[in-house]
Design goal:
The chain is α+β, with helices and mostly antiparallel strands and 728 residues long. It has 13 helices and 36 strands.
Length: 728
């Protein structure tokens, strides 16, 4: 094309004319498709308060907060840190040291203002600083290497975000109140940081050996406290609770198991490095010699090494420039978090050592409030915050226990949150057939155990056939690793049984938390789909066997008891129209396992109007993702491979070909910040799954979030006991 025919952008000057319209054709005006508006759902305000039950006074670990500076505002500044040569600062905890030094050195430039710093990029003041942009230079000494670093506080720049302190006083949650509360919580974190605490979100841990509990394996449980501001129906409160985190046992490294060491290299005696001599040779060059780490410390540094010659040495340097130390010269600093998963023994030990009676907990919390002396905290003072020292008293209600029905239509009454199946039969008793016993070296009379199980089973209405066989563990494998023991036992079972068993009763060695348990369950349930029940037969009596049969009957598809309202049927709302009840949760790997997939699980009720029978559905998803992403998974125009389709079809088939008109969702383990995601991501998928099955089907939904990891605790006034079961 001739360049003269192009415009300045190199495009042709004009487009060819449109084709002529035939005389008998009327052009149709192009209309853009209407945009589908997405509905954004938000949590509903509750319609009112419950009234059922017996009214009781309750104390709670919330302490009322008064704020006198209701006209004040938080000003938000962005913080940028760099070294003198412009490199960004990324060391953990450096930011707080820099800001502390700025506070000491530049008080006048800051107009004497206190500030709250989050340790990263946000800083808040009450009222504005003298200028919108400020720059400071400070000098920090590195205590470990005795070096001085010049650091520039590149800027504290106003973000034009002003948050009214009065927002924090609102009883209702809103975006504004959340912002104000976030600032108040940052003040609490800063207060704890200045006391040298380890900070884990809003939980704070002092370096005090009295707070440490040894759980084994070089790991300690460190008891501290949680502290955060909360909005409540009666205004703002400070919520204080006891909290525990895991830390590595401080002290000499030689006393700690090597699994905790970050970089363990070769033995001290055999690890060599090049040592530069102090004197120069004839050509003015420093001479070098090869020495072992052991030789260097003993002969060159004259340090007496008592026990680490045959142990590994620790490399505290970098891959290309290692720095080796003998283990006995190293000590682990206190308050270093241990984030790996605890072993079964460690978990059991932690539970045992963390137990507290209500009165003891109240005393610890009162003490924590006193020690922290928040009323003297400068930033809280400038907000006009004062905190009551009394536990807040509220009105509670104890709900009546639900009425249960067991076999033969008999009533079962719960007392103090417990019920007993002695002399009662199950509603639907299963049959235990095509089963066997495997014994991993537990010392017990297996024949007697089986005989007693059959006798108690008969009393409960369960028919227990004689087992096919009892498989005793081969003695040569007793000291083998757990996985090997399980494999060998399974091989033995498979070789002897005529076909796959329906049920395996597994006897574990006589101790709690057996390491065979996990591999055995995985092998049976995940690999082969075999129902299994484990027991450690120490004190086996009729009560123990009854409890065991409750589990076995449920696992084999039986039904132990039902709510009396199911049989009538008279459960409010649920019994009137077909109603599906869902329970949803996501399990994640422990904090130290960032690459393990998360597991989403959903259980759903079946056989309406029953609410006691459930089906489970499980999927894996990306690590640490809390929102379930496989509730609806369209793979073609006619195919949905999601969780919900499977569960909805099961409800329909098991409930006399009825679709649910109502769906009640119990969602576990999501924080307040994720409520909107549950409503707009998960609920959306569930609605899409329903529409995919039937475009004209519009069930009603209610989503109930169950939070267990909150820090609100209840106490009975003037009583050493816990609050009664059924207290709300």
């Amino acid at each position: 094309m001739d360049p003269s025919e192009q415009d300045g952008n190199g495009a042709p000057d004009g487009l060819p004319p449109p084709p002529p319209v035939p005389p008998n054709v009327t052009p149709i005006k192009a209309v853009s498709e209407p945009e589908v508006k997405k509905v954004l759902r938000v949590p509903m305000a509750r319609r009112g308060l419950g009234t059922r039950g017996t009214k009781v006074p309750i104390l709670t670990n919330h302490f009322k907060v008064n704020v006198s500076n209701v006209d004040g505002h938080f000003f938000h500044y962005s913080v940028a840190l760099s070294y003198e040569d412009g490199r960004p600062v990324d060391g953990k905890g450096v930011g707080r040291k820099v800001l502390d030094r700025v506070h000491e050195t530049y008080d006048t430039e800051l107009a004497g203002k206190e500030f709250a710093y989050d340790g990263e990029k946000s800083l808040f003041t009450v009222g504005p600083l003298p200028r919108n942009k400020l720059e400071f230079t400070v000098v920090l000494e590195d205590v470990t290497s005795r070096t001085m670093e010049m650091l520039a506080l590149e800027g504290m720049e106003a973000l034009m975000r002003v948050i009214a302190i009065a927002n924090a006083l609102r009883g209702q949650e809103s975006e504004n109140s959340q912002e104000a509360l976030r600032v108040l919580d940052i003040i609490l974190r800063q207060h704890a940081a200045k006391q040298g605490c380890l900070l884990v979100r809003q939980s704070f841990f002092h370096n005090d050996a009295r707070n440490f509990a040894d759980v084994g394996g070089g790991v300690l449980g460190c008891r501290g406290f949680h502290s955060s501001f909360r909005t409540t129906q009666s205004g703002l409160s400070l919520n204080i609770d006891v909290s525990t985190t895991m830390i590595i046992q401080p002290g000499p490294v030689g006393c700690v198991p090597f699994s905790l060491a970050t970089e363990v290299f070769d033995l001290l005696k055999s690890t060599r490095f090049t040592l530069k001599q102090k004197s120069k040779d004839g050509e003015g060059e420093y001479q070098t010699t090869e020495v072992t780490v052991y030789d260097y410390f003993v002969n060159h540094r004259n340090i007496d090494l008592r026990y680490s010659a045959d142990l590994p040495c620790i490399n505290v340097g970098k891959p290309k420039r290692p720095t080796y130390f003998p283990i006995e010269l190293c000590s682990l600093v206190s308050l270093q978090r241990y984030t790996k998963a605890l072993s079964t023994f460690q978990r059991a030990s932690l539970v045992e050592k963390s137990r507290q009676k209500p009165q003891e907990r109240m005393s610890v919390l009162s003490n924590a409030l006193k020690i922290n002396n928040y009323d003297a905290e400068p930033m809280l003072r400038s907000c006009g915050v004062s905190i009551s020292s009394n536990f807040t008293q509220v009105e509670g209600r104890v709900l009546p226990p639900p009425k249960l029905k067991v076999g033969n239509g008999e009533d079962l009454f719960a007392r103090n949150g417990r019920w007993n199946f002695n002399n009662k039969k199950f509603v639907n008793a299963c049959k235990i057939e095509r089963w066997a016993v495997v014994n991993f070296s537990a010392r017990c009379d297996v024949r007697n155990l089986v005989r007693d199980l059959m006798k108690v089973g008969e009393m409960k209405g369960i028919s227990v056939e004689a087992p096919f066989d009892v498989f005793e563990e081969n003695q040569q494998f007793r000291r083998a690793p757990p996985m090997v023991r399980v494999e060998k036992m399974f091989e033995e079972v498979q070789s002897k049984l005529p076909g796959p068993p329906k049920f395996l009763l597994c006897l574990l060695p006589e101790r709690k938390n057996c390491d065979i348990y996990g591999p055995w369950k995985r092998k049976n349930l995940s690999d082969f789909g075999v129902v299994t029940q484990c027991l450690a037969p120490m004190r086996v009596n009729d009560q123990y066997l009854t409890n065991l049969l409750l589990k076995i009957n449920a696992k084999l598809g039986g039904l132990n008891s039902v709510l009396a309202g199911e049989l009538s049927p008279s459960i409010p709302m649920v019994s009137k129209v077909p109603t599906l009840i869902l329970g949803m949760d996501v399990s994640h790997g422990s904090p130290g396992q960032s690459d393990i997939p998360s597991i989403a699980a959903v259980v759903s009720s079946r056989q309406w109007p029953s609410v006691s029978r459930y089906r489970a559905c499980v999927r894996t998803q990306s690590p640490k993702v809390e929102m379930i992403d496989s509730l609806y998974k369209r793979v073609s125009d006619t195919e949905d491979d999601g969780i919900m389709r499977e569960l909805l079809i099961d409800f329909y088939v098991s409930s006399g070909k009825r679709k649910p008109d109502q769906i009640i969702i119990f969602r576990d383990g999501v924080s307040e910040s994720q409520f909107n995601q549950v409503l707009n991501i998960e609920l959306n998928q569930i609605i899409e799954a329903c529409k995919f099955l039937d475009e004209n089907w519009s069930p009603k939904f209610v989503v109930i979030v169950a939070q267990k990891n909150h820090h609100t605790k209840f106490f009975q006034p003037n009583s050493p006991d816990n609050v009664q079961p059924g207290t709300v």
